[in-house]
Specification:
CATH topology: Aminopeptidase
CATH architecture: 3-Layer(aba) Sandwich
Strand order of the largest sheet: 1-2-3
Structural class: alpha+beta
Helix content: 40-55%
Distance between the termini: 39 Å
Strand content: 15-25%
Largest sheet: 3 strands, antiparallel
Number of helices: 3
Number of domains: 1
Radius of gyration: 14 Å
CATH superfamily: Gcn5-related N-acetyltransferase (GNAT)
Shape: globular
Length: about 80
């Protein structure tokens, strides 16, 4: 059985989160709208590039949790505290 651990992501997770966010987005939306692939890729570049993820991970108003199985990212959660 795969043991999953969850921890708060930090700036060092920018590359892994960029890849995970992008792949899960495409896995979710591309099959039902293949004609929008270029728009999806542009959206991902604007919102989930390594640079953007690094910026988001440095913000105190946001938090990402990263789930790992055998040291590999397998899921994530983006949270924003309520005011």
């Amino acid at each position: 059985m795969l043991m999953i651990t969850v921890r708060v992501a930090n700036e060092n997770d920018a590359v892994a989160l960029s890849e995970l966010c992008s792949s899960t987005y495409l896995d979710t939306y591309l099959p039902s709208r293949p004609a929008l692939k270029q728009e999806f890729l542009a959206y991902l570049k604007r919102n989930y590039s390594v640079e953007k993820m690094y910026e988001k991970l440095c913000l105190s108003q946001t938090m990402y949790l990263i789930a790992e199985g055998e040291g590999n990212p397998v899921g994530y959660c983006h949270t924003i505290p309520s005011p």
